[in-house]
Specification:
By secondary structure, the chain is mainly alpha-helical. Among the domains are: 30 residues; 43 residues, no CATH class; 181 residues, Up-down Bundle (Fumarate Reductase Cytochrome B subunit), CATH 1.20.950. 71% of the residues lie in helices and 2% in strands. It has a two-stranded antiparallel sheet. The radius of gyration is 43 Å and the shape is rod-shaped. Bound molecules: protoporphyrin IX containing FE.
């Protein structure tokens, strides 16, 4: 009886142990089967560890991609070639950092000092005129001398008109966004700039032709002479009007204008050539230098031309008529260009077709 009771108790214990073992096996089995089912359903066959590994790899790949991106832009910004498929000089260079320097120079000192310089010259001319006034031609002799031939006058006005149009369009392109756009409004300025650009481009070559034809015949008369120093020391007679400083066919001031136009013109034309024909294969740094040289020489010549225009009109009575009709009064010639006047009186004037090239009796006054 006791034996049966013991064997019954042991049997219950064994069943309990077996049940517990099955339960553990079931839980373990389920815990493995369920994620596996999820993985199978989602296509993830590698499990959580794989997923972890994956995210680490992703991060590494991402930082590698980021590194590559950084390397790419560092090299591209450094001007390394091979970053563009376009064929031609320097076309493989995607970013040329010199452009930043060029923009800073253009939008900094050139606009600032160029603008201030032009305004200062304009203001100085007005001030000078208000203080000193026109150099008057008090008397006329009634006798005239040919100063400028028809060819010289036509070529002077042709070149001058082109210079003025190029100056206005050029200044519009350089200062437009700062000065004109706020005043005219963006759309009107865009329309004007769209017109100014082709005008500036197309008139460049006709201007160069005029400049060469105007400058070449005047080169001999513009060579410096010792008496030019006296003219300069006397301030051209503009301050003490009782004395006439010595001058040949052109005075020292006109010679300075001539040579500024000569050398400034060369810089302007050569730099303009680079800008007008970029397809000849210039590198960007060449174009940037050309642009800076073009802007500086252009502004300088415009500033000096303001002085020239003033002296040729309001500044000196009787001067403009020479460049319009070709004739100047002998008294004007004697006062402004005494050495030329004496020369013409002594040896005649090759330009004076009406009275021949022979000698003349100088005016008594
Ligand atoms: C409205 C504008 C202009 C006026 C009223 C003007 C007037 C004159 C006059 C009157 C002369 C003769 C001076 C004399 O007989 O001694 C002259 C000469 C000359 N002009 Fe002009 N001019 C103008 C624009 C220009 C421009 C834009 C240039 C340059 C592109 C220029 C270049 C010259 C040169 C090189 C001479 C010979 C040197 C001299 O006499 O100064 N002119 N001009």
């Amino acid at each position: 009886m006791v034996e049966r009771t013991q064997s019954g108790t042991e049997g219950r214990k064994q069943r309990k142990v077996r049940r517990a073992l099955w339960t553990v096996a079931l839980v373990l089995g389920l815990s493995m089967i369920l994620p596996l089912t999820g993985m199978l359903l989602t296509g993830d066959t590698t499990g959580q560890a794989v997923a972890q590994q994956q995210s680490q790899d992703d991060a590494a790949a991402l930082s590698k991609a980021e590194q590559q991106r950084r390397d790419f832009w560092r090299e591209a910004r450094g001007g390394t070639s091979g970053y563009s498929a376009v064929v031609g000089p320097e076309t493989g260079v995607l970013i040329q950092s010199g452009g930043d320097v060029w923009r800073a120079v253009r939008e900094g000192p050139i606009l600032r000092y160029g603008g201030i310089g032009l305004i200062a010259v304009f203001a100085a001319i007005i001030l000078f005129h208000l203080i000193a006034g026109t150099v008057k031609l008090e008397q006329r002799s009634g006798r005239t001398i040919t100063r400028w031939t028809l060819f010289e006058r036509v070529i002077h006005w042709y070149t001058a008109i082109l210079f003025i149009i190029l100056g206005i369009t050029g200044l519009s392109l350089l200062f437009g966004r700062t000065v004109l756009s706020p005043w005219m409004g963006k759309e009107a300025f865009a329309a004007w700039a769209g017109l100014a650009k082709p005008i500036h481009d197309w008139l460049a070559v006709p201007f160069v032709i005029g400049l060469v034809l105007m400058m070449l015949p005047w080169i001999k008369e513009s060579l410096p002479k010792a008496y030019d120093l006296t003219w300069l020391k006397m301030g051209g007679g503009y301050f003490d009007r009782s004395k006439h400083p010595p001058a040949g066919f052109v005075n020292a001031g006109e010679k300075i204008w001539y040579w500024l136009l000569f050398f400034g013109g060369i810089v302007l034309v050569v730099s303009g050539f680079y800008l007008l024909f970029p397809n000849f294969g210039w590198e960007r740094s060449t174009m940037q230098l050309a642009h800076i040289a073009h802007a500086i020489s252009g502004i300088a010549l415009i500033a000096f031309s303001l002085g020239h225009m003033y002296l040729g009109t309001l500044g000196n009575q009787g001067t403009l008529e020479g460049m319009v009709s070709g004739q100047v009064d002998e008294l004007w010639a004697k006062a402004h260009h005494n050495l030329w006047y004496e020369e013409v009186m002594k040896h005649g004037n090759p330009k004076d077709a009406s009275s021949g090239a022979g000698a003349r009796q100088p005016l008594a006054t």
